[in-house]
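Please, structure for the following, as tokens.
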Amino acid sequence: MSPEIIDKIEQYLNDEMQPQERKDFEWQLENDEELKNDFQLYNSINNTMKAEEVSEDEHELAKTLQQLNRKYILPGHVKQGNFKKWLAAAAAVLIILIGTVYVLTNKETSPEKLYASYSEHAPVKIQLRGNTGDSLAGMAADKFNNKKYNEALPLLQAYVKQQPDDIQMNISLGICYLEMSRFTDAEQVFSAIAAGQTAYAETANWYLALTALKQKDIEKCRSILSRIPQTSAWFNKAVSLLEKLPG
């Protein structure tokens, strides 16, 4: 919506046109689809802003449009206090941006993007007591916490062979497999933990869902997430991810 069109619409609505000019403009409104759309858009927003009661949503819309106006509309056109002009212009920009926002949103809901967003792994915390096993665990934890999964993997494998009941380190081993795309190994580790009666069972289910997500198996991911109970610490994340899964 150009500044010239906005000026013409305002002149028409404020009855500031000469008779012939008004007649020509009305003819344009009937025959120019783009002008008609601009006019309806402007008129709709203008009527909303004239309303005595403005909803909270409308306040939020106004703030959004104002931000868009500052970013995209030429400051030479929009003068301080001329609220109707910047609002109509910003609304037009908003419509243009909708397609871009839609594309970006869809990109963010791709399996790759979702996995990147939700695969935040808690650091491994251990208490070192000075023995050989703890030294190995300390080195494994250091590599894991620094996301050096390929270096952490052999250390974790060696440690869990010595300490197979250390569930935290088994979870970390499964995560290393997952990050290295060794999906069969990851699923084997997480499934064994999920089948047990430990506090880590739901953590393992969460990671089974992430394993499916990374493999782009959306239905399997959805099925696993749906089984996470409301009492689980992972429930809110599971619901959030469920809402964003594509398809």
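DSSP finds 13 helices and no strands in the chain. Confidence is low (pLDDT under 50) at residues 71-81, 98-107.
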